[in-house]
Amino acid sequence: MASSDIARSAAPPVARLIEAFHRLPGIGPKSAQRLTYHLIRMPEEEANEFAAAILGVKERIILCNICANIAEGEECAICGDLQRDQTRICVVEEPLDVIAIERSKVYFGQYHVLHGIISPVNGIGPKDLKLRELISRLQDGTVQEIIIATSPNLEGDATAMYIQKLIGPSGITITRLARGLPSGSDIEYADDSTLAHALESRTEIPQSPDNSHD
């Protein structure tokens, strides 16, 4: 039964909530219905806390002005930690990838979140990513290595190649996560040991003879 069919048989407030849950990624009509009726049975105090948590995220969470990761203030906790290695930046697609790599407990450098990957099919080009902000972080000469941690799929490969051409002339070492990651998968779904192996086995991307870019 589709979510619209379920919604039509429910009271309007319930129907709206079912539809709202169904719009979330990975939530099918039956899961949307179960979540809705779980909230209905939830004590009012817990329901208020749940609603406050959602509003708090929308009202208080912003992007770090250094790495573009999710933050509560101008800097995220990682950028504000001076004990971390300032000479390495791991470039990832989304904030969830930061969480996944942090779980591996083998990387202690900085991050840069692109908020997407190059995907002409979806109308996403280099200008839609946080690449200008990445380049600006390399100007003072502190960074010695860029670790490209885009997902091992067609779009991730294209994004990695573009970054390599963009940064190559600077002379900074550019590496990419080893292919211990399953081809075609997303970083956020990799298990901790696989990510740890990929980080420790990363290889340098060879310089292209032609480093020109648009």
TrEMBL record:
SUPFAM superfamilies: Recombination protein RecR. Gene3D superfamilies: 3.40.1360.10, 6.10.250.240, RecR Domain 1. SMART domains: TOPRIM. Keywords: DNA damage, DNA recombination, DNA repair, Metal-binding, Zinc, Zinc-finger. InterPro entries: DNA_Rcmb_RecR, Rcmb_RecR, Rcmb_RecR_Znf, TOPRIM_dom, TOPRIM_RecR. It holds the Pfam family Toprim_4. GO terms for molecular function: DNA binding; zinc ion binding. Residues 87-182 form the Toprim domain. GO terms for biological process: DNA recombination; DNA repair. HAMAP family: RecR. NCBIfam families: recR. This is Toprim domain-containing protein. The lineage of its organism: unclassified sequences, metagenomes, ecological metagenomes.
